[in-house]
Write a structure and sequence with these properties.
about 280 residues; Rossmann fold; six-stranded mixed beta sheet; 6 strands
Length: about 280
């Protein structure tokens, strides 16, 4: 009579030939398999990542604490709110997250009236779809931006709750800014619940379209660094000032690594690098 299979026998994970590539990407590749199924560890890791993404969407933005932290760094801030009164409404009605409520509009008008001059740039911090991202990254990102823009006057930092990207255009318009840069929590991915994005609009006003904005995405320790993002934003702002426009008319002239250099760094064949370049990804 044959012996019963041991737990070790039934839990054997067959290796994947692409396992070495996992050192270069957080993507879920080369997970191995147990029979026809994923290994338990991979399934549990996926479930954790999914839970972290959901938590990031629903986490509350503590604008009061961020205001205190920004004040310690020498920034004045103004707290505002979109027309979405709470998180469920924000998720169901994207249109309401794109506009300021009446009290916030009055607050920004008063700030503009009391200012000595209109600012060159207004920075808006918006919770977006990940308050976790702005909680972790907005303050150091703002400091990096200031360091890169010594010749620009920066207005008060607008802290916006239940806000989407287009809200920044209204805030910039009310404050009379030449440009607005909105720092927003991006839609969480299954490997990036805390990714920050920056949306730049020259001559902001209500009604600007997505085609009139530039986006800098995936700002976080595992992606684009604060200094890299600040340098890109500074370059885009200088280009927007010369051109008098942003969006599809304005190109990011930051040099990217050549494919040959990337292939050498990863010790991979160029055919594999070029094949991966054929895929694209989009963010809202």
């Amino acid at each position: 009579m044959s012996a019963e299979p041991t737990p070790t026998d039934t839990a054997l994970v067959l290796p994947d030939p692409w396992t070495a590539l996992r050192a270069y990407t957080p993507a879920r590749i080369a997970l191995g398999r147990t029979g026809a199924s994923q290994p338990t560890a991979a399934l549990l890791a996926f479930s954790l990542a999914h839970a972290q993404a959901r938590d990031a969407v629903h986490e509350a933005f503590d604008a009061a604490s961020m205001s205190i932290e920004l004040q310690a760094d020498g920034f004045h801030s103004i707290s505002v709110h979109s027309r979405a009164t709470d998180r469920p409404m924000y998720l169901r009605r994207p249109d309401l997250g794109r506009r300021l409520d009446a009290a916030s509009c009055d607050r920004l008008r008063q700030a503009a009236d009391s200012a000595n001059a209109a600012p060159d740039l207004v920075l808006v911090v918006a919770d977006g779809l990940s308050a976790l991202a702005v909680t972790r990254h907005a303050q150091p990102m703002i400091k990096a931006i200031r360091a890169r823009l010594p010749g620009w006057s920066i207005g008060p930092v607008v802290l916006a709750e239940q806000a989407r990207v287009a809200l920044g255009d209204e805030a910039g318009e009310l404050l009379g800014a030449r440009a607005v840069a909105l720092l927003v929590g991006e839609r969480p991915g299954l490997s990036s619940p805390d990714s920050l994005g920056i949306y730049l609009t020259w001559a902001p006003r209500v009604g600007r379209s997505d085609a009139e904005r530039n986006c800098i995405s995936n700002i976080r320790p595992e992606g684009l660094t604060y200094d890299q993002a600040a340098a890109t934003l500074a370059g885009l702002l200088e280009g927007a000032k010369r051109l008098g426009a942003s969006g599809i008319m304005l190109k990011d002239e930051t040099l990217a690594p050549a494919p040959d250099a990337l292939g050498a760094r990863l010790d991979l064949g160029l055919d594999l690098i070029r094949a991966s370049d054929a895929s694209t990804d989009t963010t809202d």
